[in-house]
Amino acid sequence: MEDWKKHKQPMPRQDPRVRAKNFDEVALGYTEEQAVREAERCARCKNSPCVEGCPVEIDIPGFIELIRQGEFLGAIGKIKEKNVLPAICGRVCPQEDQCEKVCVLGKKFEPVAIGRLERFVADYEVAKGEVPAPPRPAPTGKRIAVVGSGPAGVTVAADLARLGHSVTIFEAFHKAGGVLVYGIPEFRLPKAVVQREVDFVLRLGVELRLNHVVGRTITVDELFADGYDAVFIAVGAGLPRFMNIPGENYNGVYSANEFLTRSNLMKAYRFPEYDTPISRGKRVAVVGGGNVAMDAARTALRLGAEHVYNVYRRSRQEMPAREEEIVNAIEEGIDVQFLTNPVRILADDAGWVRAIECVKMRLGEPDDSGRRRPIPMEGSEHTIDVDVAVMAIGNGANPLLPSATPGLETNKWGNIVADEETGETSMEGVYAGGDIVTGSATVILAMGAGRKSARAIHDYVMGSGR
Question: What is the per-residue pLDDT for 135?
Fold first, then answer.
């Protein structure tokens, strides 16, 4: 095999020294020539394991072949048969753990850069002008309410609209997109890209109602009373978790959820145009090792921090964040403190964070997650001077809607209990999917749940219904 076919086409990116000081997108995207060359790496194998690795069942070999032929608009059309958020998925989905993980070429060399190609054709379509919306089918007369406009909610809404149903999305925030807008920073997923994808879904005939908190503004029972035939719940996992260590209530301690929401929805990333109430620390510690921790650390850097520590209790090998996000963070100057765990937060006399006390860890035998369990090392206590601490150790289920919906079964973690294949819950006509069911997961898995539920909801409302 020719040497160039063994490796992915490199993704053009901003220089680390430049991008660490701005909120512009880090990855710049392929050129037409790079995209065609990458598409030519595809082995066009017969069994296409990449399709099985895709939660939304995209015809991956089909769209890559169209790119190889230079049929870029045909390629995006092929993707949109299954995925209404290609520009988003091409940027933030963990293809390395899904479609690219099972790529035949990846057995010996680097897999085909499926995500980068998906992003390329999505951006190409926009660059060429107005994105056409498919013709609307004949209306069925059925009405479905979707609670939440994140990836699961938007996917189920689009699929149901394409089947002729009247769909209304109820969103608690003043912007649509859910975690895509409040949780993922501008430099990784621009707000304009999310808005573009949401606009496409609205052009399918979906209605969007912002500032509607289902469970407070209106209840699930009231939605049925208003004439909806089914309800899909996709409110995400927005309840922050903390370590429950001394000092977490001091000023300057944030959950990553709050820190990123203030930056993203309240536009701290456009300072000084928007003077968002957020602590711009000079020395910031972000605790955790996932994508959210990387996002928070890199956001703190761009908000003006002189030194950002990422404190993680395991080693680089166990870090759950995407490899490219870890590399980007380290290139930008994030100081990753591996095998380190906070045990206490210290404050000054006014109650503002001044340091975190940590211990060093060693790795023992694997725990339930399959990763080696971190064990504190006696006598390794030390402090790190910081003025802001961000806890990025995961989120729990949003409790508001389930607590206001009698008869909706939840598990011990507060997640809604739903059938894995259909999204059916304990309440007739009520379906659920995404992080409110699974706990914090990926964009594409939430979309996959939305796709499965759309089929089940269609069958339900076109059958006997309620």
Answer: 83
- C-alpha distances out from residue 84 to 27, 37, 318, 451, Å: 21, 25, 33, 11
**Tokens standing for residue 248:** 């977490």
DSSP states of 27-94: B----HHHHHHHHTT----SS-HHHHT-TT---HHHHHHHHHTT-HHHHHHHHHTT-S-HHHHHHHS-
Residues contacting 435, CB < 8 A, separation 6+: 150, 152, 179, 236, 237, 395, 397, 441, 446
Residues 58 and 349: their CA atoms lie apart, in Å, by 57
DSSP structural state of residue 184:
S
Instruction: Give Cα separations from 376 to 232, 288, 314, 338 (angstroms).
Output: 44, 16, 11, 13
Which residues face 232 on adjacent strands? Answer: 146, 431
What CA–CA distance (Å, rounded) separates 14 from 20? 9
- What is the per-residue pLDDT across 98-145, written as a single tens digit (0 to 9) for each? 999 999 999 999 999 999 999 999 999 999 987 777 788 999 999 999
DSSP state of 14: -
DSSP strand pairing (239-240 vs 253-255): unpaired
Residue 440's region, left for phi above 0, alpha for psi from -120 to 50, else beta, is beta
Q: Which residues are within 8 A (CB) of 200 and not within 5 positions of it... i.e. 6 or more apart?
A: 84, 131, 133
pLDDT at site 194: 95
Cβ neighbour number for residue 202 with a 10 Å cutoff: 17
Backbone angles phi, psi at 149, to 5 degrees: -115, 30
Could you tell me whether strands 372-376 and 353-366 are parallel, antiparallel, or unpaired per DSSP bridges?
Answer: antiparallel
Residue 377's CB is within 10 A of a number of other CB atoms, namely 13
For residue 209, count CB atoms less than 10 angstroms from its CB and return exposed for 0-12, middle for 13-18, buried for 19 or more: middle
- Give the CA-trace dihedral at 123, 238, 101, 185, to 10 degrees: 40
pLDDT band at 374, cuts 50/70/90?
very high
